[in-house]
Automatic annotation (TrEMBL):
InterPro entries (alphabetical): LOR, LOR_sf, Tubby-like_C
The organism of origin for this protein: Medicago truncatula (Barrel medic)
Pfam family, any one: LOR
Protein's UniProt name: Putative tubby-like domain-containing protein
Assigned protein family: Belongs to the LOR family.
Length: 185
């Protein structure tokens, strides 16, 4: 059974994991290109320019055809590093898919809790934990030891861009995992 959060069409087949490469384009805005191992574009992420007038950071996840899938929004005034994901380009509460925030303000290594929109238990649905160096992360189901995605950051150089190498387990929504990754920085 597939664990669709964004859409069943983005769930990896049951027979094998999905490997993705996320390239960061650091300019005035942070944009990302997500490719499969055959170098096909799977998604793109465009960021809006943050201004004093709009103290929010916005990122938009698009499919390979340029159709909007998600609107990721972060308040720069929030102390808990909170991102909210909405369907399409919406910010309406009815279109909320998930909320991602730090588990606590004081952390030796990053731990993020993810709550799906219909969760009102106070217990997170997914957890993202960094290793001590902060260069790799695992995504777990809730507070369990069940890893559903592994993320490794490859630092860029003057001539190469920063990359995330991602492996998403079978039956897991890889659009959801990509949305989490582009909120890590």
């Amino acid at each position: 059974m597939a664990n669709a959060i964004i859409s069943p069409q983005y769930c990896a087949p049951a027979t094998h994991p999905i490997d993705l490469i996320i390239t960061t384009e650091r300019t005035v805005r942070d944009n990302f290109t997500i490719r499969d191992i055959n170098d096909n574009i799977v998604f793109t992420v465009k960021s809006s320019l943050v201004t004093i007038v709009t103290p929010r950071q916005h990122r938009f996840l698009f499919d390979a055809n340029g159709n909007p899938i998600l609107h990721l929004r972060r308040s720069l005034l929030a102390a808990d590093d909170c991102w909210k994901a909405y369907r399409g380009e919406s910010t309406e509460p009815k279109d909320l898919i998930f909320t991602r925030k730090r588990s606590s303000l004081m952390q030796l290594r990053t731990k993020l809790n993810v709550f799906l929109a219909n969760n009102n238990t106070g217990v997170c649905d997914f957890t993202v934990k960094a290793n001590l160096s902060g260069q790799s992360w695992n995504v777990y189901i809730g507070e369990s030891n069940n890893v559903v995605a592994q993320i490794n950051k490859k630092l860029g150089t003057i001539v190469s861009r920063e990359k995330f190498m991602v492996t998403v387990s079978p039956n897991i929504d890889y659009a959801f995992i990509v949305a989490l990754i582009v909120t890590l920085d």
